[in-house]
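Structure ticket #2291
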Amino acid sequence: MIPNSSAARQSNRWVLPIAMALVPLSLAAAVFMGIVDVPANDVISALGGAGSEEARSIILDIRLPRIITGMLAGIQFALAGLLLQTITRNPLADPSLIGVSQGATLTVTLFLLFTVYIFTPGSHTVAELPIGWLPVAGTAGGMIAGGIIYLLAFRLELSPLRITLCGIAVGAVFHAIAIGLIAGWGSARIEIILEWLSGSLYARTWDHAVFLLPFTVAGLVMLPVIHRPLVMLQFDAAVARSFGLSYRRQFSLVLFISCVMAASAVGTVGPIIFVGLVVPHLARFLAGRHFPLVVALTVVLGAIIVTLGDLIGRLIGGAEEVPIGVVTAIIGVPVLLALLRKVP
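Resolution: structure written out below.
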């Protein structure tokens, strides 16, 4: 057993450096490749602020912001999935299982179908809230859903099973209401709703990246703080408390962090399916039982998979690009099944 364990540790040593090396490679591939063929020299010149106006527009205003937004969202989806799977001890947990994605879907649907009107100061006209508020609406909806689920589970004695059951129930209600609204009050914005529901990085700008950045940074900063509680929360409440853990408080903190990351990511790019579910499993497969390595790999792989998934969607779809949510779903199912076959 000892030699095997030593060999496993030696092999795991190179997993994270290799994965980290793939981040700039995937970033470069996504920048240099796209629907419009931009010569490599023009891409390099545009990144340096030179080159033609067309090349700068394509690289700096279209490709780069959507890539950065996707990377940030991928990190948040993957981490949220890992945290939820850990504290609920449910290998199938992801943001949709606890209702966060459905809560964001409902508020985004309400926002797009029944845009709030505000009076313009000094006049008798009204103005629509800009579409740029969409991430805020989605994030608020996801957080409201998470709060409702937490309160329900708290009243029924907070536990992983009750969190999961409450999330499924509340998520189903929110999803049904959203679909009912779309079917009954379809409007000129129905295409935007459907595109958002499929999970897409289309037309994402630097504003979206700037919106996501604080949530990503805050989540990463909190990882060292919650590391020990997260390890303890993998056990039953009685076992965790025997190690001196304040179970309810730490469970609530980790759940809150996962909800914030999931809600802001869903609100910005839509419910990208399978990232929060598959990436943690892939990280465990590569890292084994070394939990700190699992966490680090989850962060790195989340960024890589969303970046490459979006690139694949752009290349195979042409002008009518395939949303990344569709790509991750198609790829994620066989990958998940293959990984689950490795689980004893």
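Closing remark: Confidence is low (pLDDT under 50) at residues 1-5.
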